[in-house]
Specification:
The complex is a heterotrimer of chains A (about 325), B (about 325) and C (about 280). With about 325 residues, chain A is α/β, with parallel strands linked by helices. Chain A contains eleven helices and 13 strands. In chain A, helix 5 packs across helix 7 and helix 7 packs parallel to helix 8. The two termini of chain A are about 25 Å apart. The relative contact order of chain A is 0.15. In chain B, helix 5 packs antiparallel against helix 6. Chain B has a domain of about 190 residues: MetI-like fold, CATH 1.10.3720. Chain B is globular, with a radius of gyration of 24 Å. The longest helix of chain C is centred in the C-terminal third of the chain and has 38 residues. Classes of the chains: A alpha/beta (about 325), B mainly alpha (about 325), C mainly alpha (about 280). At the B-C interface, helix 1, helix 6, helix 7, helix 9 and helix 11 of B face helix 6, helix 7, helix 10 and helix 12 of C.
Chain lengths: ~325, ~325, ~280
Amino acid sequence: MIQTGAPRLEIRNLSVAVDTDEGQARILDRTHLKLMPGSIHGVVGESGCGKSTLMRAILGILPARGRATEGNVLLDGRDLLTLPPSVFRTEIRGGQIGFIPQDPYQAFNPVFRVGTQLLETTRTKAGNHGDGARADIIALLKAVQLPDPERALDRYPHQFSGGQRQRLLIAAALASSPAVVLADEPTTALDVTTQAQILKLLRGLAEARGLSMLFVTHDFGVVAQLCDTVTVMYAGQTVESGPVARVLAAPLHPYTKMLLACHPDRSAALSGIPGAVSSPLRPPPGCRFHPRCPSASAECSKAIPPMRVRADRQKVCCVLYDEQERV
Amino acid sequence: MTRFVLHRLLLTIPALFGLLVLTFIMMRVLPNDPSAALAGENATPAQIAAVRKAYGFDEPLWKQFVIYVEQVARGDLGNSIISNRPVLRDIADRLPATIELTFVSLAFAACVGIPLGTLAAVWYQSLFDHAMRIVTVAGLAIASFWFAIIAQMIFAMELDWLPLRGRFPEGLAPPLHITGLYLVDSLLTLRFDQLGKAVVHIILPAFTLSLAGLASIARFTRAGVLETMQKEFVHYAEAAGYARRRIVWVYVLRNSVVGATTQIGLLFGGLISSAVAVESIFDWPGVGSYAVNAILTSDYKAVLAVTLVVGLIYAIVNILVDVVHAWLDPRVAESL
Amino acid sequence: MLILKKFMRDVPAVLGFCIILAMCLVAILSPLIVPDFDRVYDGDLTSRLLPPSTEFWFGTDSLGRDVFARVIVGSRGALEVALSVVALAIGIGVPAGLYAGYTDGWGSQLVMRLTDVFLAVPQLILALSIAQLIGRGLDSAMVALALTYWPFFCRTVYAEVRRLRSALFIEAQRSLGASTRRILFMHILPNVASAVIVRATIGMGFTIMTTAVLGFLGVGATPPNPDWGLSVAEGRDYLPQSWWAVTFPGLGIFITVLGFNLLGDGLRDLVDPRLRRSR
C-alpha cells in the first residue's frame, strides 16, 4: 500500500566517507530516499553500491573511521545524525528501528538460548520486563508461524533450521514495535523455497501491522515480489526510484535498464554490464555510472544530475531527463 | 550430558593406568635391591632372601605389578624414609595447604586476568592494550622462584610488611581442623583474628604463584575476546540494539571464556609445577615442599607417591574442566 | 621474502630475535667478554660479597666469584642445555608424531596413549620424578626434561599430519603413484617443519626456565656450575644485604626466556594465522 503523508524515514543528500590507509573512500555520495508509512521500500544495487553502509548510517553503527560528511537521516522528522551514540543504543536500535540481518546462521550467539537473545532488546528499553515481555515474544513467534513457540525460547540456535532462525530474527526485529524495520537481504542465505516462504511472511506481516520496511537486496526478482516502491543505487549514488511496477515496466535510468536486462528472468542470453564498478577512493566526477554508460555525454561528469520527476512519482537522476520537472 | 562425562572418564583410565606402569617401572629401575634395605643393615643373605620372598620380589615382574596395583588401590604406597609414616598419610596431611594456596592463586589470577584481558581487547591498540601485552609477556618470563625470593626480600625482610614464611605465625595454634583450609576453617569457627593471620601469610605465596597464571589468562582472554568481537553475532547484537555492556560482559565474554576453559587445565598443571618451588621458598607446608624434601633426601617412595597423587588430581581437574566446558557450550556435549 | 617483510613489521618478535641473537653472541664470545675466566669457578675469598662496582659489574658472591662472569658463562650453559633438550625431544617426538599421524591402527593409538601418560603429570613433577631416579645432576635433568617435552612435539606433528592427510593434493599424489616416503618428504615435512620450529622456540624458553628451577632446587646443575638457578639458590642465604648475587642471575633468566617467548609468538603469528593468539 502506498500511502501519502510524511515519510517515516527520509534520507536527504547523505554522503558517507571512510578513512582508509589509501585515502578517503567516499562510499555514499548524496544519496536520497523516502520510506512512506506502511510501505515496503526496496533498495537495489550490486555489491559495493553502498547499501550496507546506508543501513549502518541509519542505525548509527558506521565503522570507527567512517562518518557522514553531509546530509540528513530523518526518522519521523528527527535527524538521527545529530543524536549522540547513547541515544542510538537506548532508543533507536532495537527500539524505534528494528533490524533483520542477512545470515541467520551467524546472527545468533551459539552458547545462549534463543529466548535470552530475543528478550535482549526488550530488556533495555523502558517498561518491558518479565512475563509481559515473554508473552509478547511468544505472540510474535506465533505471528511468524514458528512451530511450538513456548518451547522454542528455551532451545539453542543450532536446534533450528535456517528458515526457522530467520523467522526468529524477524520476530526479534518486531519485538519493540518499531517505527521502521530495516531488512538486510534476509533471504540471501536461504534456499529458494524457504526464500519464497519468508518473503510471503514478510509481506503478510507488513500488511497486517502496517509496517514501514526498508528492504535491501541485490535481486530485482525479490523486489518484484515484495516491495511497493524501490530505489536503485549505483556506486553510492541514487539513480532512480519509484513504484516497483513502473520501474520494472519502464525503467528510465540507463543503469536500471541494464540491471534489469541482466536478470535471468528477463533475457534469454546471459548479459552483463561492461566495465567494472569504480573504486570509492577515486570515483568519477558527477554521475558515477557515466564511464560505463552507453548514453553518456559531456554533461554527465559535470555534476550529479539532480532528481527529476516523471509521471506516477517515478524519479530519476540522469541528464537525459533534464527537461523534466525538477524535484 | 552424563554420556559425555562417562565418555570423558573412560578416556582418562588408560592414561592413569599408564602412569601406574610408569611409576612401577621407575621403582624397579632402582639399582639397589629393596629387600636388602628392608632387611636391615646386618642381615644375612638368608634373611635377605626371606625378605625377598615375603615381599614377593622374587616373583615375575608382571605379578609384582599386580601386587603393586593392589597396594595402590588399598592406599598403601609405602612408608617415607624420613617420617616413617605411610607416605599417603603424609601427603593427605599436606594436601589442604597446597589446595588452599593453588585455589587462592587461581582465583586471584582469574579475577584480575579476565577483566584486564577483556579491557585490552575492547580498547584494542590503545596504550592500555600495548602496555598489557608487554606486561603479560614479561610476566611469563619471570621465574617464580626468583620472584618469590625478591618479593620475600622486599616485603618481608626490608619493609617488614608481610611475614617471611609459613602458613600461620609460629607458636600460635592454627584454626580448628575442619577442612584443613585455614581460610575456610577460621571463617567457619568465626575466629576472625585467625582469619586475618592466615590471610596475611598467604598473600605473598599466592601472589607469586598467580603471576604466570594471571599473564596467561589475560593473554588468552584478550585473544578470545578479539576473535569473538569479529563474529557476526556481535555485529548483529549491536545492530539489533543490545546494551553495550551486556554485549561485552555477558555475550562476548561468555564465548571467549568458553573457548578459554580448555586452557585452564594446562594452567593448573603449570600452577602445580610452580607451587613446588614457591612452597619450598615460603616454607609452605604443602605437597610441593614435601616433594622437594623427598628428592633431596632420596625418599623415592615419597616422590613416586607424589607423582601418582598429582597425576590423579590433574586428571580429575582436566575432567572437571571439560565438563564445565560442555556445560557452557552445549554444542560440545552433543558432539559425542 | 614476503614473509621476512611481514616478520620485520612485528616489533615484539624482532625484539625477541635481537635478544636471542645477543644472548647467543654473548654465549659464544664469553671467553672474550669475561675479564678473568678463573674467577668464574674459583673465588677469591678475600673479596666475598662485594657490591657492584667498576671492577665487578655485578659484584661478587659468597665465594668471592665474579657474578658478572658467572652470569655470562651461565648463559652459555643455559643455551647449550636448552638446545640439547629440545633436540632430544624433537628426536623422539617428531618421528613418533609422524608415525602416529600417518598410520592408523593400534600402533598409532599406542603412541598417542603414551603421550597421554607422559602428559598426565605436570612437567616439573615428572621431571623431578625421573631425575631423582636417574640420579641428580645436570645430565639426568636434561634427559628428564627431554622425556617430559617430547609429547608436545609428538602431538603438534600428529595434528599437522592428520590435518594434511585429508588434504586433496596428497590424494592426488597417491593416485599418481608416488610412494609413501616421497609423500612424506615432499609434502608433509615442509608443513610440519614450521609448526615444529614454532614449538621448538617456545620450548627453548620453557626449558631454560625449568632447568633453572631444577638447578635452584638442587636437582639439576651442581656446584661450581654457574647455572642461573643454582646461583640464585646459593645467593639466597645472604639476603637482603647482598641482593646482587640473586638479582642478576634471575635477570639473565628473565631476559633470555622473554626473548624466546617474543620470538616464538612472532613465529607463530607468521606461520599460522589460524593460531593467532595476540593479534
